[in-house]
Amino acid sequence: MPKGQVQKAIHNFSQFQKSATQGDVYQNVVNHPWAQPLVKALNLPVPVKLRRQQQASEEFLRGKALFGAAPNGTKTESNVSNAILTVLSKSSAKLFFSKGNKQQQDLMSASKQFPLRVLSETTHKHSALVYDATNIETPEQLSSLYNFYHNAISRIAEHSRVIVVGLTPESCKSPAQASVMRSLEGFIRSCAKEIGGKAATANLLLLEPDAEALLEAPLRYLLSARGAFVTGQTLHITKVSPTKEAINWRQPLLDKTALITGASRGIGKAIAETLARDGAKVILLDIEPCKDDLESLARRLGGHAVIADVSDKKALNKLIKDVQKGSETIDILVNNAGITRDKTLARMDDKRWNSVIDINLAAIQRITEALVDNKVLNVGGRVVCISSINGIAGCFGQTNYSTSKAGVIGYVEAMDKPLARRRITINAIAPGFIETQMTQAIPFLSREIGRRISSLSQGGQPEDVAEAVAMFANPAASGLRANTLRVCGQNLVGA
């Protein structure tokens, strides 16, 4: 064997050994060329590695996207289809509609305004399937949804996106239509389970009437690699006045200041890096033992490090005074700091209970309300709170943690209207199994189960949570209010 081939073989084997000992061991091994013969011989499942955002300038959608709409959905008066097509037209994807659909005439009319072409070729793979279901009014009309996806779903590419746009059931004009719009959740969740093996995602956007002008931020996010670990989820879009700011989609947070708690490592660190990448000035807060990591991160990001304990009320008052003294205000607040103190309920002492409730829940309330009351959080600001899927489903040995994280969701829902008076939005993110130092400490078998019980058959990365935070923080995301978005790969835990 030539010397070059020997060196390449040695290098490949060393990379194989490395992949077999770090991170998601199973996924790394079965996706490695050295393991392919064994994988094929044993017919092992191979989770497709997710394609995540690599740089801020990356296109939000490429390839070939297929668009469809319920009958009459693309007539001139259908602003929803127009809004969807406007967003799709800003991507580099080639846009198609299916030949022979009942709404073909309407789509032909729309194609004069947008770069739509008839899908004549049936061999290419779709990078996205986007459907406007807002005109469906009866259960019988759901057949149009079925026909569109039935004919196209087998031709989706790896890492593709399925998006359905509907109306919020509460806004529907009849019980029949409300039931149909609620049924879209069942459709999208099942679809997500069927396509997850391709690292493909399926999600639902539900609009209040006349809220289509607020579609762009969540639609771009769900179509892009930023939303790679979000699937089987629903986002509700409320009708509010859209921002008058011109959005730089490569750096939408320019001239914004973000405060992130628990920012020195793991998810908090990824949030800081992502918001800074998107243009924000970052203020990073964490406790004294994390000082070195926090200050190093702040220097690298050109931000400001604050050493404080979120459970310390005096430290909170000092933080507010320091910010006001520097003539600074905050546009984005990310309540990320949290702890675990696990024990079964019968063996849990009150110290474990009280510390988790205080830091994970009460501190969020204190910080948010103090910043709002002292007008440190600007009008038009964004609040994002980190919850957990265990706050939705509960978890053995985590009554304190699950209680606190469920409380976070309740707090977000309750604070929506009070904050809306100052045009401040508040939303929650519920991460699932995320690859962090904390999850690396979980026993191997439990860790593997945690990874495999999602539709994407793998754990998420801290940047998956961070990308969702950045989406909620976007000035164009003013219609996203009181949502709880699960960033979990459609984990079987929870609803």
Query: Which blocks of ≥5 consecutive residues have pLDDT under 50?
Result: 5-11, 16-21
Q: Given the helix and strand composition, which structural class is it?
A: alpha/beta
Which superfamily, in CATH terms, is the homologous superfamily of the largest domain? NAD(P)-binding Rossmann-like Domain
Determine the N-to-C terminus distance: 56 Å
Overall radius of gyration: 23 Å
Shape, principal axes of CA atoms: globular
The domain tally reads 3
CATH class bucket of the largest domain: Alpha Beta
Largest sheet: 7 strands, parallel
The main sheet orders its strands as: 3-2-1-4-5-6-7
Tell me the fraction of residues in β-strands, as a range: 15-25%
Helix proportion of residues, in percent? 40-55%
| CATH fold type of the largest domain | Rossmann fold
